[in-house]
Amino acid sequence: METNISLDLSDELDCSWIDNFEQSEQEYSCFYKEKIESIKLNYIYVDEKNSINNIHQETLLLDNGKIDKDKMIEIIKNNKNKNKTNYSLISILKYNITLEPEHIKKYVNDELEDEFLSKVDILQDIYFKDTINLFQDLNCLYFIFCNKKVRENKNKNKITKRIIIHLSSIKKNKITRKNI
User: Fold this and answer.
1) Is the dihedral of CA 156, 55, 76, 95 positive or negative?
2) Tell me: domain 34-176, CATH 3.30.70, correct?
3) Where are the alpha helices (H) located in 10-142, listed in sequence order?
4) Residue pLDDT, tens place only, 168-179
5) Parallel, antiparallel, or unpaired: how do β-strands 66-67 and 126-127 relate?
6) Across residues 25-51, what is the average pLDDT?
7) What are the residue ranges spanned by the domains of the chain?
8) What is the pLDDT of residues 58-90, one digit of tens each?
9) Are 97 and 140 in contact (CB under 8 A)?
10) Where are the alpha helices (DSSP H) in 92-178?
11) Most buried residue, 30, 122, 131, 174, by CB count within 10 Å?
């Protein structure tokens, strides 16, 4: 007994649904988490009057989502002098949005706490977790420098606390202005 099997073109599987799915998924690609390739470095300089005197920003390419401690030391050394004034570092703050895609709406509507700003130690590697593509440009580091004369006379924790509160409110407003 022989069986004849013949395939007709009409018997082929219809795979067009895969193409349709990939096309519709492309529209939502900005909501998927991806590895962070670069961040903004913000340098904030506080003067004798406890006011922000200068702000400088630059972009840094990350190596597999991290900055090693040697690079951190180099960054600090290169930025501790501004306008012929000697500053010392009082704090480093990391802003890394680790929000899950399903929580975006709650976060934008202020129904979810902002827990993305944290203080980091200079003597460690700094890692950035994957972030939703739409929020990639918000990930950054803040270096807070204080005039050396001020640092000797003032409590650095008060300055850092005030700046953290201010930065938290700025970031929250920045996110809510995005169109989603």
Assistant:
1) positive
2) no
3) 16-26, 69-79, 104-108
4) 665 554 444 333
5) antiparallel
6) 84
7) 34-176
8) 999 999 999 999 999 999 999 999 988 999 999
9) no
10) 104-108, 148-153, 156-176
11) 131
